[in-house]
Amino acid sequence: MNLQLFLLIIVVITALAFDFTNGFHDTGNAMATSIASGALKPKQAVTLSAVLNLAGAFLSTAVAGTIAKDLVNGHLVTLQLVFAGLVGGIVWNLLTWLLGIPSSSSHALVGGIVGAMIAAAGAHGVIWTGVVSRVLIPALVSVVLAGIVGAVGTWLVYRLNRGVPEERSETAFRRGQIFSASLVSLAHGTNDAQKTMGVIFLALISYGAVSRTDALPPFWVILACACAMALGTYTGGWRIIRTMGKGLVEIKSPQGMAAESSSAVIILLSAHFGYALSTTQVVTGSVLGSGVGKPGAEVRWGVAGRMATAWLITLPAAGLVGAVTYWVTHGIGGYAGATVGFLLLAAAASAIYLQSRKTKVDHNNVNAEWKGDLTAGLDEHGKPGIAGAPIGNGEAAEHTADAKKAGTL
């Protein structure tokens, strides 16, 4: 096996690993509000989201072309560079997942690729007009637009439902949320799976396996990326889901449906025009808008502020990791450089995973009462305290029942 083929195999494996992290990192985009409102049980939600993410990945490939051709000079791309960029995206995804911060997987990937390109060839290797027009401007416009649409939609929903008994209204909107959440999952597949397709497409162009004039990646790339994202989605990024569903706003079904509907429309439109949009930022804007639009709702602006800070540093942070990875792998060179880079990535991922196990967040406690922090009120086993035990989703009430049997309630 020659070195270039070895590097291509490493790149494809790493790209699919990124797609997997993208799947569980962004599950909350589609299903957090439905889980928080009780419209769907946690396991049902992630299963439905996984299936629809898989289907959505086959509906559009415009974003794949953006990642492959509009952000960096393809003539300067090497397989080492692509690998380093992927490492930047994966490490940032895992760190923000550990902290329960819904940051942008899209921007992490773009930042990693751009940082690696700067390390390899300098700033002239980056197509800055593409970065600004295809990534930065859509990110700013989309989050503001999503917030406005979510706020107006929520206000209209509550305005039109005046006089309707709350129980009847909640039941109807919970059913509607199943459809709106499904639409967001489908939209997420059309947008986010394309980014990894674009990276593998870029690697195949660099290797010479496909022509630079090809408009679409090979079918096996589309299928592999769709499956990797669906599998990641099914595992459930519970830490992100908890922040999105409980940390920003106490979501009711009418708010959830309004937020999901506005998110789906914006994401689908962006995928159609080929913008590498952050679905995380769109959904966050919609959720915040739903809090603003409901009279008397509490919006936790402190949590939103921490998320905004993470968004601002995503591109440079992932870029720094990508650049350092490139310097290490290129400096060592050959088979050894690629192997060392891959082993360092595996070590970092393992360390982050082990840290997350110290206080588990899963489908049993994802709806526990928010007490100011992701894991506040959860013990070392991830079980919610009795005061914060969620009783509405049908999966965590067992803790309360156990407490009653033990005589502590």
Largest sheet: none
User: What letter string, H or E per element, gives the SSE order?
Assistant: HHHHHHHHHHHHHHH
What percent strand? Answer: under 5%
Number of domains: 2
Unreliable segments of 5+ consecutive residues: 386-409
GO molecular function: phosphate transmembrane transporter activity
Protein name: Phosphate transporter
Transmembrane segments: 45-64, 76-95, 107-128, 135-158, 219-241, 310-329, 335-354
Membrane topology: Multi-pass membrane protein
Structure description:
This is Phosphate transporter. The chain is built from 15 helices and no strands. The chain is mostly helical and 409 residues long. The protein folds into two domains: 3-356, no CATH class; 364-409, no CATH class. α7 runs antiparallel to α11 (253-273). It is globular and about 70 Å long. The chain starts with a helix and ends with a helix. 56% of the residues are buried. Residues 386-409 have low confidence and may be disordered.
